Amino acid sequence: MNGIPDHLEHGLSVVFIGFNPSLRSGETGHHYANPRNNFWRILHQSGLTPRLYQASEDGELLQLGYGFTNIVARPTRGIADITREEYAEGRRILREKLAMYRPRVACFVGKGVYTEYSRKKQASWGFQPDPQYPFTHEFVAPSSSGLVRMSSDEIIGIYNQLTECLTNLY
């Protein structure tokens, strides 16, 4: 199964970075397409989007200044199926994308995505100190997977920090 296309362009406010596409996303060609994934609801409930979008509309979020990519392009059933080599290659490619497109914020959708990218052992929620690139803030948000054991209020509260930052930037 092929990866799904990135939605990236210069001047984005936020690039959302996931681990890798789900099998459902690979089948549909859209980011966060698994119906058990709460990504689109989180964006709307945190005020990042003016309405509830569907995965099939992921390309339309470029108009809002939001882009999408993953640290690993290959769709899998879960992150346990990602190899060390895929992470190493994915880190290199992701760094190239961030350096080229220079988004204001790189939002890592899950602590594990950020620790794989940064090679740091730990991360806290929210904005991270010492970003890799001075032109891009690094923000760690909870995974939107339905398997996450945080309340939706907690998750939305963390995403609200990103909403507040973007509101203050513009």
TrEMBL record:
Among CDD domains, the record links this protein to:
UDG-F2_TDG_MUG
Its protein name is Mismatch-specific DNA-glycosylase
Single GO MF annotation: hydrolase activity, acting on glycosyl bonds
EC number annotated for this UniProt entry: 3.2.2.-
- What is the top EC class of this enzyme, as a single word? hydrolase
Q: Which UniProt keywords apply?
A: DNA damage, DNA repair, Glycosidase, Hydrolase
Q: Where is the signal peptide?
A: none
Q: Which residues form the Uracil-DNA glycosylase-like domain?
A: 8-151
Q: Known InterPro entries for this protein?
A: MUG/TDG (IPR015637), Uracil-DNA_glycosylase-like (IPR005122), Uracil-DNA_glycosylase-like_sf (IPR036895)
A Pfam family assignment: UDG
